[in-house]
Amino acid sequence: MVTSGNLDRFNSRRSTAYHPNGIVATSQPLAASVGRDILKDGGNAFDAAVATAAVLNVVEPTSTGIGGDVFALYRTADGDVGALQSSGHAPKAATIDRVRERAAAEQGVDEADATMPLTGGLTVTVPGTARGWESIADRYGRLPLDTLLEPAIEYARDGYPVTEFIAEKWKHADELFTDDYARDTFLPSGRPPTPGEHIELPDLAATFSTIAADGADGLYDGPLGERIVETVQEAGGLLTMADLREFAVEYPEPISTTYRGVEVFELPPNNQGLVVLEALNIADELAADGVDPSDPERIHQLVESMKAAFTDGHHYITDPEYESVPPLHEKDYARKRASDIGPAATEDVDIGVPNGRSEDADTVLLTVADAAGNVVSFINSLFKGFGSGLVVPGTGIALQNRGRSFSLDPDHPNHIAPGKRPFHTLIPGLARFDADDWMAFGVMGGFMQPQGHLQVITNLVDRGMTEQAALDEPRWRYRADGRVAVEARMDTQTVSTLVRKGHDLTVMSPESFGGGQIARYADGTLIGGTDPRKDGIVSGY
Q1: CA–CA dist 390, 467 (Å, integer)
Q2: Distance (Å, rounded) from C-alpha 264 to C-alpha 430?
Q3: pLDDT by position in tens, the chain (length 541)
Q4: Beta bridge partners of 367
Q5: What distance in Å separates the CA atoms of residue 84 and residue 72, rounded to the nearest whole number?
Q6: 311 is annotated as an active-site residue
Q7: Do the beta carbons of residue 514 and residue 531 sit within 8 Å?
């Protein structure tokens, strides 16, 4: 189904951006400008990433917030490659029996029929963002946290005009928020803001000021945390101050594979990066058939590669401290999976999405590169819209509903357990084209993310597209209901070929295919691209 409205079509006239000193690509112009200014004022790419993310919390609260999680992939100017996982865990009291009992009471069903809710206190996991921002800035940045948060504080305190795209997404708040404080905070006129309307978030400004003064401990071990816990518990959740105090950021080794000479890095579990790497490996095996990269037959191969990777990833990926996750990104594994793919669409593929309504989600992504060679892909989210529907009184903090990703099936690897981290959709991307040619990239939108990574990389590597063209190219996405969604502007030959091969096609609006960003450091040249599907913008100097 194609929805109506001005967001349904775009005709990109953008060129790939080039800047000599620094480049920031993200989804909102005020945030991108702040990142650029941080670079101009002596910060590096890590500083710019944190400052930009903080402003996005204010100006795009429909998709991100300090009540959510944050992740990063990066290459430092010294040549180190690394990853940040600041992924909140389930409360220590969240046994599967206790959660099922409470969920059943909320849903008015027998315990055997209960599922993880979409919103409410049971969906709230520990928010990882504040600790993640502080940690990566301390480890790799040049500027103090209070300096990085100041622009966000100013926009929250003094206000800003809402952009057209974000105003459209904000409409969801009218249905989601039911208590007076949440509605007063995000619907101050009793309705969602219209494009250009001035919005102020004074309580969020005060929260950021507390964290600027006291560091992340102001949230995890102070009055802010106590308010979070009280709000969650009043809504039937199980979060405690002990859960907040015990939270720690992790810096795991990135996982990677090589696709036609380009090394692609992703986050390890509990994130879905393995899905990307398995799909790339399968696609690489199928490329041996010699199909022209621009031939619709190749799109069929990519779709089938994605189906196989989703089937495996959604079954196995979970918190590796609780369950064993097989090495889905190894080439030998892909060879076996590729042998099952033929000229016709594989039918009745169940990609195993726990709680199918979660396949679409809202996220912000930003990418930064600086003149020293630091390259950062940084992703922040509340998961679905404004998250759980809970806004902590007096703080302006909207809490994530990431716990929605857990299963209540004890036999599923991703079942909820005390202290466990859920399957996580958020995946920044990083690619090495040469020794001193690195690209931070990503595509937003729940289970569109790995599909977007696959398409951006193959557009660049197989089809020789520029960074901007790789983002502009019409996209497809495999859906949990077994259909393949395409953009209306996809060429008719590709559509006809996919239908003939047995794919069940549907047309969806451009925003359903995620927004994407690219920032690349190529032997001293800084290159950027951004996605017109979600108001993307590149800012540099």
Answers
A1: 38
A2: 6
A3: 233 334 444 556 689 999 999 999 999 999 999 999 999 999 999 999 999 999 999 999 999 999 999 999 999 999 999 999 999 999 999 999 999 999 999 999 999 999 999 999 999 999 999 999 999 999 999 999 999 999 999 999 999 999 999 999 999 999 999 999 999 999 999 999 999 999 999 999 999 999 999 999 999 999 999 999 999 999 999 999 999 999 999 999 999 999 999 999 999 999 999 999 999 999 999 997 788 898 999 999 999 999 999 999 988 999 999 999 999 999 999 999 999 999 999 987 777 655 544 566 678 999 999 999 999 999 999 998 899 999 999 999 999 999 999 999 999 999 999 999 999 999 999 999 999 999 999 999 889 999 999 999 999 999 999 999 999 999 999 998 899 999 999 999 999 999 999 999 999 999 899 999 999 999 999 999 999 888 899 999 9
A4: 25, 377
A5: 5
A6: no
A7: yes
With H, G, I as helix, E, B as strand and everything else as coil, classify residue 101.
Answer: helix
Amino acid letter, 64 = T
**Collapsed DSSP state (helix, strand, coil) of residue 1:** coil
Question: What single-letter amino acid sits at 41?
Answer: D
DSSP state of 8: G
Residue 425's closest CA among 270, 538, 225, 258? 270
Catalytic residue among 76, 207, 311, 363, which?
Answer: 363
φ, ψ for residue 357, nearest 5 deg: -65, -10
Give how far Cα 72 sits from Cα of 49, 61, 85, 354, 447, Å: 10, 20, 7, 25, 18
